[in-house]
């Protein structure tokens, strides 16, 4: 399936068809759109994520091991913004790639690694919050090692998928007006054979399943949090949840809906000319929009780490333990906890949210 389809082979076999289709799929606005959006994302994203890495790694006193997900999310966002200068130059010069084939392969794969590792880390945070809210006794048994193993597995899977793509042959192609396109404008043969497995895996395992987990888990978490009487702390906890939902809905959902349609268009399942033009233009818009996730993610770090202490007491006999809630601590403050303690002089014990 991962056929080594070279650039020259694709051009020699389908040049006329490919170039003519690209001429009909022009979106003049894309050059200024990508240049402006990527420039904004580069400046804001670099500052925010480098600062986030510094604070999360050195300054914040962590009481929940979920900070491992936050650090890796900030790391993958930092890698993403580092490739944006190449993308800015590419779009500023009307989609003409001048940096060579290997640079095209690396920058293109890093671009998509950001998208799917971000979704994966969001899902991990979601599952972590679900366990903390609904299974607190299970949550206290999860160790830092478990988080490190999960993160390592995600990175290994991401690299194992992308390395064959990088080594499988050129990913630049012949564009319109004698330009060189990078990571786009593939011939139909490439879309059907080489790129199809990646697109299907990305749509199903990279987005559909993780997004479904997020949509199913968070209503359960919200219902649990709603039982807490401390309104200010509850609002801050809910704000953390809403940020993840907003980022997924604003950045990732539109991109993957248009990506699915774009894939069907490229393998010629969709052939209506007016609709294909609309899909192509929406694809350009959502590609720019998805990059904003690395500017919005630092909001998640802030609201997850800035909630004040909120205390929930579970009174149990013969036992005293601390169970961290779904909220981490404010910079320099202790985190909210479930306090499990024996109630002296009372033979009966109860679980409750105070």
From TrEMBL:
Bilayer disposition of the protein: Multi-pass membrane protein
Assigned GO CC terms: membrane
Annotated compartments: Membrane
Domain G-protein coupled receptors family 1 profile, chain residue ranges per copy: 48-301
PROSITE patterns on file: G_PROTEIN_RECEP_F1_2 (PS50262)
Protein keywords: Disulfide bond, G-protein coupled receptor, Membrane, Receptor, Transducer, Transmembrane, Transmembrane helix
Gene3D superfamilies, per database record: Rhodopsin 7-helix transmembrane proteins
Listed transmembrane segments: 31-56, 68-90, 110-132, 144-167, 200-221, 241-265, 285-303
UniProt entry tagged with the keyword Electron transport: no
Keyword check for Disulfide bond: yes
Primary subcellular site in the record, as a coarse category: membrane
MF (Gene Ontology): G protein-coupled receptor activity; oxysterol binding
Name this polypeptide is given: LPAR6 protein
Originating organism: Baryphthengus martii (Rufous motmot)
Lineage, opening ranks: Eukaryota, Metazoa, Chordata, Craniata, Vertebrata
Gene: Lpar6_2
């Amino acid at each position: 399936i991962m056929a080594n389809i070279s650039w020259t082979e694709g051009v020699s076999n389908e040049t006329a068809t490919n170039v003519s289709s690209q001429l009909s799929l022009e979106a003049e606005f894309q050059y200024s759109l990508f240049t402006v959006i990527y420039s904004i994302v580069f400046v804001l994203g670099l500052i925010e994520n480098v600062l986030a890495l510094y604070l999360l790694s050195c300054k914040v006193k962590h009481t929940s091991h979920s900070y491992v997900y936050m650090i890796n999310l900030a790391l993958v966002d930092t890698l993403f913004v580092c490739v944006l200068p190449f993308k800015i130059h590419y779009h500023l010069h009307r989609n003409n790639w001048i940096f060579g084939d290997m640079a095209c392969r690396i920058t293109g794969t890093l671009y998509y690694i950001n998208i799917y590792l971000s979704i994966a880390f969001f899902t991990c945070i979601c599952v972590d919050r679900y366990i903390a809210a609904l299974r607190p006794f299970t949550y206290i048994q999860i160790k830092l090692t478990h988080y490190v193993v999960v993160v390592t597995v995600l990175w290994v899977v991401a690299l194992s998928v992308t390395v064959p793509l990088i080594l499988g042959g050129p990913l630049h192609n012949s564009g319109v007006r004698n330009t060189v396109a990078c990571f786009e404008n593939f011939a139909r043969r490439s879309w059907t054979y080489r790129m199809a497995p990646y697109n299907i895996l990305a749509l199903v395992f990279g987005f559909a399943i993780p997004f479904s987990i997020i949509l199913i888990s968070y209503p359960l978490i919200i219902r649990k949090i709603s039982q807490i009487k401390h309104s200010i702390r509850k609002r801050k906890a809910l704000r953390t949840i809403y940020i993840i939902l907003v980022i997924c809905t604003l950045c990732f959902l539109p991109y993957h809906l248009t990506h699915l349609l774009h894939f069907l268009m490229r393998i010629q399942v969709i052939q209506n000319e007016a609709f294909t033009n609309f899909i192509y233009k929406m694809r350009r818009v959502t590609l720019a929009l998805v990059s904003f996730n690395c500017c919005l993610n630092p909001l998640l770090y802030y609201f997850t780490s800035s909630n004040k202490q909120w205390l929930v007491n579970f009174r149990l006999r013969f036992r005293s333990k601390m169970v961290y809630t779904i909220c981490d601590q404010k910079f320099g403050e202790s985190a909210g906890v479930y306090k499990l303690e024996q109630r002296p002089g009372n033979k009966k014990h109860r679980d409750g949210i105070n």
